[in-house]
């Protein structure tokens, strides 16, 4: 992990993608998208459902074939890199990984380490240290000997990140790591990813939650209809006009001085329905006061 | 666990050399194997008749165990067995074709079963690896079932056409080993060797695949290539096994489960070698029983292996998560 930190100084971006186009089943999902990721930075890709966010990060990761454009890892063209070379440059955390039976957390993290272990050999002391470090860093040490099948969604997500950290690549890419998680688990994952970027990792995440993206990301890339339409620091980029244009919603991003973020949304187009609803709710509550107890038994 | 299974294979091997229509003392078995002085009759029985057969049992049992483990790992499907890549249907068709249509060429039986077993697998892969979504698990399984059904229908057609010759194929269909010396093993060993070498190289990629295609790709492994290689290795092993011992594919289905449930771990670096040992031990024990129970008549080993394996398998299944 020290290796990752020392590379912060180098000027060359970890990843640079220009004009990436991805077509699947005769349909173009991503149109000439651009992306630049530097060491020590956290870049969030945001956009509506179906905008091509996941496809773009899969394409730059070398997991999805792209039909046009240039993708460069540390200056080397993606198509010229062998699988293992790429595996040493970036680790990819999928949105949903398989959860096989009969595999413990430590087994899974050891599989993540396998890039560094020669064929026919057992993990060496350096490998075991890296495995335990990844387990500690993601806060799953207490679960290390548990089977994956017994973990909750939030625990599984942290294990997935541990698997990726054991790979010991300076770039971490995560596809919607928080989309299935509750508030507490989301905060845990957000802190973890931000901490990794502060330690010198380059972190690329696909995020749905704009207030979360604004809180943790150094930069956001906004995608709409397969194109990258805006890029920059969150407050400067996620403007009222952009939110209205891309998501078709009247909303604004609020950032307070103590770095709290919130998205203020006119959920029902600003009509006075919420007020009415609150009034109706009070009436419901009165009614429930009489009708609920019978149901509890 | 690996050590225990190794001991089981050795014990089963010695038993398979000692027991049969004629009981040879254990001392003579060990003497004969180590090149010592033993009576001529004991030498002939142990070294010329039983040794090739025991070696065949070890190789075939290990091959089917490994084939099942590879397919279950590669397809992330607990129901995968050599049936699924069409090998069983193809090998059965090849054997029936030779035994019933050209019974004078019975010596070609192993090669016929091998050829049609591999041909069926080739057709399955050709279909599963074409068009959009090529190499997907669902496509492979469906292609395997369809091609298997096609060869199964061919087998039934031949059986119907030559009803008077049907009894001669029962032994092959039930699955059984014969005491024919080293000849058959000498003809098909390269297929076993290629399959085992592939299997050893595939254990780590299969572990990566267990965490999903994207994790495997993140670690620099190509999921489709690994699936194809695992399928080819399993087809080689299962077709070679069928050529020597008939249709015992059931062994390929249960042995990897048996190993996983007994050890409580599913990592392929453990399951693949352990399945080889467990398959070898189970087939050796089953074959010995098949020779002893109705001696001097030899029964097909398939049903005996099932008799040995299934009760323990069901016991483990009851306690499994």
SSE arrangement:
The complex is a heterodimer of chains A (297) and B (321).
Chain A: H1 2-6, E1 15-24, E2 27-37, E3 42-46, H2 53-60, E4 68-73, E5 76-77, H3 83-87, E6 90-93, H4 105-113, H5 125-137, H6 153-166, E7 171-175, H7 183-198, E8 202-206, H8 210-216, E9 219-224, E10 227-232, H9 234-237, H10 240-247, E11 251-255, E12 261-265, H11 273-291, H12 293-296
Chain B: H1 2-18, H2 26-33, H3 40-75, H4 87-101, H5 109-128, H6 137-161, H7 167-174, H8 183-210, H9 213-218, H10 223-245, H11 249-263, H12 268-292, H13 301-319
Based on the model shown, name its key terms:
heterodimer, A: 297 residues, alpha/beta, Rossmann fold, six-stranded mixed β-sheet, four-stranded antiparallel β-sheet, 12 helices, 38% helix, disordered N terminus, B: 321 residues, mainly alpha, ABC transporter involved in vitamin B12 uptake, BtuC, globular
Describe the structure in your own words.
The complex is a heterodimer of chains A (297) and B (321). Chain A has 297 residues and is an alpha/beta fold. Chain A has 12 helices and 12 strands. In chain A, the strands form 3 sheets. Chain A has a 6-stranded mixed sheet with strand order 6-7-8-3-9-10, with helices on both faces. With 321 residues, chain B is mostly helical. Chain B has one domain (2-319): ABC transporter involved in vitamin B12 uptake, BtuC (Orthogonal Bundle), CATH 1.10.3470. Helix content of chain B is 76%, strand content 0%. Chain B has 13 helices and no strands. Chain B starts with a helix and ends with a helix. The model of chain B has no long low-confidence stretch (mean pLDDT 88). Classes of the chains: A alpha/beta (297), B mainly alpha (321). At the A-B interface, helix 3, strand 6, helix 4 and helix 6 of A face helix 8 and helix 9 of B.
Q: Give the overall pLDDT of chain B as a whole number.
A: 88
Percent helix range of chain B: over 70%
The CATH architecture of the largest domain in chain A? 3-Layer(aba) Sandwich
**CA(first)-CA(last) distance of chain A:** 56 Å
Radius of gyration of chain B: 20 Å
Annotation, overall tally of beta strands of chain B: 0
Structural class of chain B: mainly alpha
Largest protein-protein interface:
A-B, 37 and 23 residues
Low-confidence stretches of chain A: 1-9, 290-297
Work out the helix count of chain A: 12
Supply the number of structural domains of chain A.
Answer: 2
Biggest beta-sheet profile of chain A? 6 strands, mixed
Which strand-content bin applies to the residues of chain A? 15-25%
Number of helices of chain B: 13
Task: Tell me the helix content of chain A.
Answer: 25-40%
Biggest sheet details of chain B = none
In spatial order, strands of the major sheet of chain A run: 6-7-8-3-9-10
State the fourth-level CATH superfamily of chain B: ABC transporter involved in vitamin B12 uptake, BtuC
Counting DSSP E segments of at least 2 residues, the number of strands of chain A comes to 12
Mean of all residue-level pLDDT scores of chain A:
88
């Amino acid at each position: 992990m020290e290796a990752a930190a020392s590379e912060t100084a180098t000027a060359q971006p970890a990843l640079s993608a220009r004009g990436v186009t991805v077509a699947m089943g005769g349909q173009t999902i991503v149109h000439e998208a651009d992306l630049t990721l530097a060491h020590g930075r956290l870049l969030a890709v945001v956009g509506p459902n179906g905008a091509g966010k996941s496809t773009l990060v899969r394409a730059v990761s070398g997991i999805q074939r792209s039909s046009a454009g240039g993708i460069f890892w540390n200056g080397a063209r993606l198509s010229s890199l062998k699988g293992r070379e790429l595996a040493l440059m970036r680790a990819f955390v999928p949105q949903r990984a398989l959860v096989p039976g009969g595999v413990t957390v430590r087994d899974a993290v050891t599989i993540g380490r396998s890039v560094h272990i020669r064929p026919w050999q057992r993990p060496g002391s350096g490998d075991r240290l890296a495995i335990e470090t990844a387990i500690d860093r993601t806060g799953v040490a207490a679960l290390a000997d548990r089977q994956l099948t017994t973990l909750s969604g939030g625990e599984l997500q942290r294990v997935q990140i541990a698997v990726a950290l054991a790979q010991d690549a300076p770039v971490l890419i995560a596809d919607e790591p928080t989309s299935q998680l509750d508030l507490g688990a989301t905060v845990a994952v957000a802190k973890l990813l931000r901490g990794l970027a502060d330690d010198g990792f380059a972190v690329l995440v696909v995020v749905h939650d704009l207030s979360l993206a604004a809180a943790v990301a150094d930069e956001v890339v906004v995608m709409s209809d397969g194109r990258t339409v805006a890029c920059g620091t969150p407050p400067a980029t996620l403007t009222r006009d952009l939110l209205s244009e891309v998501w078709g919603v009247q909303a604004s991003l609020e950032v307070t001085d103590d770095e709290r973020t919130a998205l203020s949304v006119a959920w029902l187009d600003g009509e006075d329905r919420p007020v009415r609803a609150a009034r109706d709710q009070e009436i419901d509550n009165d009614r429930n006061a009489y009708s609920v107890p019978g149901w509890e038994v | 666990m690996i050590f225990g299974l190794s001991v089981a294979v050795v014990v089963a091997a010695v038993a398979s050399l000692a027991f049969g229509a004629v009981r040879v003392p254990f001392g003579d078995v060990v003497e004969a194997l180590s090149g010592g002085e033993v009576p001529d009759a004991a030498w002939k029985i142990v070294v010329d008749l039983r040794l090739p057969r025991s070696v065949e049992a070890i190789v075939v049992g290990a091959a089917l165990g490994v084939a099942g483990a590879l397919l279950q790992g590669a397809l992330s499907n607990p129901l995968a067995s050599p049936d699924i890549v069409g090998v069983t249907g193809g090998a059965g068709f090849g054997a029936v074709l030779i035994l019933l249509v050209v019974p004078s060429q019975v010596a070609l039986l192993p090669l016929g079963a091998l050829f049609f077993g591999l041909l069926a697998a080739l057709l399955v892969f050709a279909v599963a690896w074409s068009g959009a979504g090529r190499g997907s698990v669902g496509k492979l399984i469906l292609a395997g079932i369809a091609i298997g059904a096609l060869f199964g229908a061919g087998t039934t057609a031949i059986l119907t056409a030559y009803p008077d010759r049907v009894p001669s194929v029962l032994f092959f269909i039930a699955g059984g080993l014969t005491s024919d010396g080293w000849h058959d093993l000498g003809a098909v060993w390269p297929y076993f060797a290629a399959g085992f070498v592939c299997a050893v190289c595939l254990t780590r990629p299969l572990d990566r695949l267990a965490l999903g295609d994207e994790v495997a790709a993140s670690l620099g492994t190509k999921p489709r290539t690994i699936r194809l290689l695992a399928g080819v290795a399993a087809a080689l092993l299962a077709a070679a096994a069928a050529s020597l011992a008939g249709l015992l594919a059931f062994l390929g289905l249960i042995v990897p489960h048996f190993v996983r449930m007994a050890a409580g771990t599913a990592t392929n670096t453990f399951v693949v070698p352990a399945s080889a040992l467990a398959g070898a031990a189970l087939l050796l024990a089953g074959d010995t029983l098949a020779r002893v129970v109705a001696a001097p008549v030899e029964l097909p080993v398939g049903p005996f292996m099932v008799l040995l394996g299934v009760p323990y398998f069901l016991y483990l299944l009851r306690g499994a998560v």
